[in-house]
């Protein structure tokens, strides 16, 4: 089998990724410490995804994973299968965007308050930025990984390369199916990313932030959960909040941020219930509202609110949209279970 890097170079030569894309990514143009962080995260994730077994992927058979960076003019992430590999390509601009959001949040006294690490000092900022960044990055890669293992990525055949793009222009037709796949990917990504943060390689980075405080008001597990909610909230709120109405809501390929975070939080509660029951009720809806409001305001000021989205979702057309989305998500989930059962039936 060809090396994954060679396959990617070949696809780039053919212009397969689109205008402005460039492989290998021009990592030498980046700050050397940022470049070395990107390379170490890539190595850790390739390792983690190669070691993952059928328990994580739910039994879905898939080719070996390869995570890599690509130069581009836009923040985006690509998932596709080609040449015997399941590829996850992350553009340099989305990495830079996640770093900038982490920087902005790490300097905000209101965020330090949420994380119980106030007052802000240089040593803290130095640890907090990479910690918030690593959680965002892990969540993004786990989300793309789920698109693969939940069979959202259509297999490519021959010259026909089918790429799943994370950030797309609004489509013209009804995209509710794609939206249900997105919340499915978010929900599952929460499980893998939280497991990594609490029990895997992500723990060390995050805990190092909390070692600096003199007196902790919240426990180590609560601290980890706090950093997770801030980082994933930041990932969604890095983009300007979507403006939605009864017609346009169905035409977007991704649900609005308020809906995605709602699914994320349901999944967080369910993960805690199974893995850390002592903190299941700590991140209650009221605390979550304070968290997400603070993150939005730290990134966008007064404009960083999804109040308009929430108001629409509470209207009759909003409630109908939510019901249809949930119905489709459950239908896709049952379809996946059938697929896995069939795959297991064959392998026995
Ligand atoms: Zn997605």
Poorly predicted ranges (pLDDT <50, ≥5 residues)? none
Number of strands: 4
Helix content: 55-70%
Mean of residue pLDDT?
91
Distance between the termini: 27 Å
Global Rg: 20 Å
Strand coverage percent: 5-15%
Q: Quick one: overall form?
A: globular
The ordered string of helix (H) and strand (E) elements is HHHEEEHHHEHHHHHHH
For the sheet with most strands, the description reads: 4 strands, mixed
Count of distinct structural domains: 1
- Bound ligands, named by name, code or SMILES: zinc ion
Give the number of helices: 13
Structural class: alpha+beta
Tell me the strand order in the biggest sheet: 1-3-2-4
Describe this structure in words.
With 348 residues, the chain is of the alpha+beta class. It has one domain (93-347). Helix content is 60%, strand content 6%. The protein has helices spanning 4-13, 32-51, 54-57, 92-106, 109-114, 122-149, 176-199, 202-210, 220-237, 257-275, 285-300, 307-314, 316-347; strands at residues 65-70, 77-82, 85-91, 164-165. A 4-stranded mixed beta sheet has the order 1-3-2-4, sandwiched between helices. A hairpin with a 2-residue loop joins strand 2 and strand 3. Helix 4 (92-106) packs across helix 6. The two termini are 27 Å apart. The model has no long low-confidence stretch (mean pLDDT 91). Bound molecules: zinc ion (ZN).
